[in-house]
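Justification of computing resources. Each target in the renewal requires a structure prediction run like the one illustrated here; the chain below, 241 residues long, is used simply to show the kind of job we budget for.
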Amino acid sequence: MRLDAATFLLQWATGGIAFLWFTLRSQEISIGYSKLLRGVFGSLAIFAVAAGFFFDKVLIRELASIAVALIALATLAKKSAKFDLVAVAIGAVGLVASVVTSNNANLVDLLRVLVGAAFLGAVTDLMLLGHWYLVQPGMTRKLLNELTNMLLIIWPLEIFVMILPTGMISVLNGTIDDGWNGILGYFWVGCASLTGILAWFTRAALKERSYSAVMAATGLSYLAILTAFGTYLVARAILAL
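Resulting structure tokens:
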């Protein structure tokens, strides 16, 4: 299955909105946060539409991206998160369509797309939520802890779906040539390992009482988003060769 920009952007938008709902469900954060994230992920969905029509159109996926963008931007200032779940459901339909319309697609491809969406969304929202504590410093750390714990649950699932046959194990043992004499395979191992380590350090930092601990956790999440994207994109690019 070929990695394409439209599917990647829809994954990112769908996963991000899913964890926006996860954060908003307790109604402990200001409306500004939902405006920020709906604006960001709605824009990503628009870019997904443009990429889909420009590169390789999959009509259901493109229609789903349009719907996700419209819902996100139309509900920009709404406190209720119920429409976010609608956007996530529609985005998931578009992602499934992107898989089933591909040649030689299978269940492993579907798992990689769906788990990847959750992985990208969780790590992005963690970084944005940590940053939001600068705007709303009186918030409880519960929200950050919950999102960090979700990332720690999804992280091993992301690694698991990427090593399912034919996967990254085949790259590491040389069965699949990464085009760089195995360097990209080891780079993937490094990114995958560091993502988990950074997430664990983020959770440890949040146990400290000082406010600077929240800023430290946010800094760690900035690094985690880099390694997480390396984990996802390097594997998908190699396995698409």
